[in-house]
Amino acid sequence: MTVTIEDVRNLMKKAGIDSGLVDRIDPAVPFLRQGVTSIDVPLLALATEKEWGIAISDDDAPAIRTIDDVVRYVASKGRGA
Fold first, then answer.
1. For the chain, first and last CA: distance in Å?
2. Number of domains in the chain
3. How many CA atoms lie within 13 A of 60 on its CB side?
4. Burial, 30: exposed, middle or buried (Cβ in 10 Å; 0-12, 13-18, 19+)?
5. Which domain holds residue 66?
């Protein structure tokens, strides 16, 4: 299974992040520069861990700032390929 940008968008909505905001997000631009709040980011991290059965380490978490980063991270853990 490949995790796509659309999969991450759907997961963000499922995690309770405003769907209108999610639909407008540029996958390459950091979440916090696009209106995603500092509360939403940890919600997305937790949802990502649960959805794809991975653990995001405290060391890795700060590097996951965009939708593209989520896709790459999940793939690097063997779940996105």
1. 6
2. 1
3. 13
4. middle
5. 5-76
At 26-67, the pLDDT tens digits run 999 999 999 999 999 999 999 999 999 999 999 999 999 999
CB 47, CB 15: distance < 8 Å: yes
Q: What is the CATH number of the domain that holds 42?
A: 1.10.1200.10
CA distance 56 to 25: 22
pLDDT of residue 1: 58
DSSP notation for 18-80:
-HHHHHH--TTS-GGGTT--TTHHHHHHHHHHHHHT----TTTGGG--SHHHHHHHHHHTTS-
Q: What is the 8-class DSSP label of residue 81?
A: -
More confident residue, 51 or 2: 51
pTM above 0.90, yes or no: yes
